[in-house]
Specification:
The protein is an alpha+beta fold. The protein is built from 11 helices and 5 strands. Strands 1-2-3-5-4 form a 5-stranded mixed barrel. α8 packs antiparallel against α9. The longest helix is centred in the C-terminal third of the chain and has 15 residues, at 150-164.
């Protein structure tokens, strides 16, 4: 199977994790990042995929169903996340890396948001619309999603925009103010729990010395800098 640039970035990120100051949850090592196989059953909220004789059930947002138009017997390639709880291991599947990134951002960085609500948000609006709503502070738009009230919508905006600071990276990447490599590195560091301002400062310091650095090398060097 062909390994994408983003998957290589994830692998690099995982290899760098032991440098972090906080203990890494054992859940992060139980990762199924990609699933490719033939569709056995297709429903708007889930797919069952045959991969080498094993049928995997993946919970999906409606946006993924609409993007893939899955039919029984067709080959599908899903970006996935294995969510582990004490009483269940649930696999979530996505058509694009952008969908998975928003899903992980919501469940990892916004208090009170679990997989069900994150899937509902992705089912209710495209990723670019979600990002625009958060950047603009449009809680009314987010609150239109089923299961998302006004207070939850406001909390999502507050925590992503003010506490996590990810919206600055989204805006700057869209405008071209930061390169794709720098934006990928910043978002990876934010996913590890670092503040956006600290992540950007570390990445820029490295780019000043090594302008042609890849996202992978930026992550490694930034982690060393942030831990020093």
């Amino acid at each position: 199977m062909k390994i994408t640039k983003l998957e290589n970035l994830y692998c690099s990120l995982f290899r760098a994790l032991p440098l972090a100051s906080e203990a890494v949850s054992p859940e992060i090592w139980s990762v199924i990042a990609r699933l490719r196989g033939n569709i056995i059953e297709a429903f708007p909220n889930r797919l069952i995929v045959d991969c080498h004789g094993v049928g995997y059930e993946a919970i999906i947002p409606i946006s993924t169903f609409d993007h893939l138009h899955p039919t029984e017997g067709a080959t599908v390639d899903l970006r996935t996340h294995l969510h582990i709880r004490e009483n269940a291991h649930t696999l979530y599947g996505f058509a694009t890396e952008g969908e998975r990134d928003v899903f992980l951002l919501l469940i990892d960085r916004v208090s009170g948001i679990g997989p069900a609500i994150a899937i509902a948000i992705l089912s209710g609006m495209p990723v670019p619309m979600f990002k625009s709503a958060v950047v603009a502070g449009d809680s009314a738009l987010l609150a239109k999603t089923k299961g998302i009230g006004k207070k939850t919508a406001e909390r999502i905006i507050l925590e992503l925009k003010d506490k996590v600071g990810v919206t600055d990276t989204w805006q700057d990447a869209a405008s071209g103010e930061v390169s794709t490599e720098a934006a990928d590195a910043e978002l990876a560091l934010i996913a590890l729990g670092y503040k956006q301002v600290d992540s950007r400062k570390a990445v820029r310091a490295i780019l000043d010395k090594e302008p042609g650095s890849t996202a992978e090398s930026l992550i490694r060097s930034a982690l060393r800098s942030l831990q020093s």
